[in-house]
Amino acid sequence: MKNIKAIYTGLALSAIMIFAGTGCKKEAATVVDNSAQYTSEALINDADVNYNNVVFTEGSETTEYSAENEGLPEVYTLVETDMDDAGFKRGIEKRFFTCLKKLDLTDSQAIRLRKSLRAFEECKAADIKAHREAYAKLLARVEGQRKEYIAQLANKKITKAEFEAKMKALRQEFESSLKYIKASFAKRLNACYDKFVRAMKEILTERQWKAFVDCYR
User: Fold this and answer.
1) Which of 108, 52, 73 is nearest to 216 (CA)?
2) Which residues lie below 8 Å from residue 217, measured CB to CB, with a gap of 6+?
């Protein structure tokens, strides 16, 4: 009988341990790992997605075609002088620096960040210039065509339906051309930003980096 009781007792204890272990595993499984959002890759990928996303204002009889900031995400337009006056108060403050100045940077960190920002600016300078020139040519071509269609409509050389059809085709031309411009510069611009973000992460403390990511993303 004692042996039987011992066996039952052992089985009962084993069951309790198994149940307890399962409970711990279930509890552990509910823990959310959000570390991925704090990686350099997360910010680098955000910039690439934002750049390649084609968003624009469609032209009409009264509205010109346009893409905000010439189709460039804010992070690709950062320049060293954005850090001037210590408080980053040059023109309209970019959100990147609104988040950055909340970090209580040391003088040493500010100097190192300025150096990294200068390197970023130099790395992308030629491509940003070429992108803006290509965008300006696209706008000029499309705007000239839009005005021609408006004139044709006003002079009754084309009907309203024909005008709408031409404007639809013009919209497709603008969108595809803007996509082509972006595709031409996407890899090089993102490579420059990649270097800057990784350098910035090295300069900031872990607490500062997480605070910046929480603010900016």
Assistant:
1) 73
2) 37, 42, 43, 46
**Residue of 34, 44, 59 lying closest to 150 (CA atoms):** 59
Q: For residue 146, which of 70, 29, 58 has the smallest C-alpha distance? A: 58
The amino acid at residue 130 is: A
| The model's pTM | 0.78
Q: What is the pLDDT of residues 113-165, one digit of tens each?
A: 999 999 999 999 999 999 999 999 999 999 999 999 999 999 999 999 999 99
Domain boundaries, the chain: 1-31, 35-216
Residue with tokens 């065509």: 145
**Pairwise CA distance, residues 142 & 181, whole Å:** 14
